[in-house]
Specification:
Low-confidence stretches: 126-131
Mean pLDDT: 76
Number of domains: 1
Helix content: 40-55%
Shape: globular
Number of strands: 0
């Protein structure tokens, strides 16, 4: 499942701490191609695919939460699931069991494609063509080439 595309524009409203999850979901699917790398190596017979389990945990880490139990607070959170492209949010027990099953082999796979994904990413990659980064207070466009 692909993450939901969100329109980001300048506003006077405050963004919540979770608003960055939209960009995390885009990075996982566009640059890391998490489903293409993880699911063939760690197939599942039932339940959520391994890539979605991993994406859910990465979403927790992006919010500064490393405890498996923290996922329980996200089970009814539609924004969390949509921004990460999850068809469902796993329970804490499922998350713990599946992450343990991935173990060392899973962490080595994640390290390998994360290095490649980081090399492909650049700061303007998430911006739509008609958006330009600007200084928050002055509204001036920042220097640099953005496509």
């Amino acid at each position: 499942m692909q993450p939901t595309s969100f329109v980001v524009r300048q506003s006077t409203r405050d963004l919540t701490a979770m608003s960055g999850l939209a960009f995390v979901g885009i990075a996982l699917h566009r640059f890391a191609q998490i489903a293409q790398h993880i699911d063939p190596k760690f197939p599942t017979r039932q339940g959520l695919p391994s890539s979605q389990i991993l994406a859910g945990y990465i979403g927790l880490l992006a919010e500064g939460k490393s405890d498996f139990e923290a996922i329980e607070g996200k089970r009814g959170d539609r924004f969390f699931a949509q921004s990460l492209g999850l068809s469902g949010v796993p329970s804490a027990a499922t998350l713990r069991q599946r992450m343990d099953a991935l173990g060392v082999a899973g962490s080595e796979s994640v390290d390998a494609f994360a290095a490649g994904a980081a090399a492909q990413a650049w700061p303007g990659a998430f911006l739509a063509r008609d958006h330009r980064p600007c200084a928050a207070r002055s509204g001036r466009i920042l220097p640099g080439q953005f496509r």
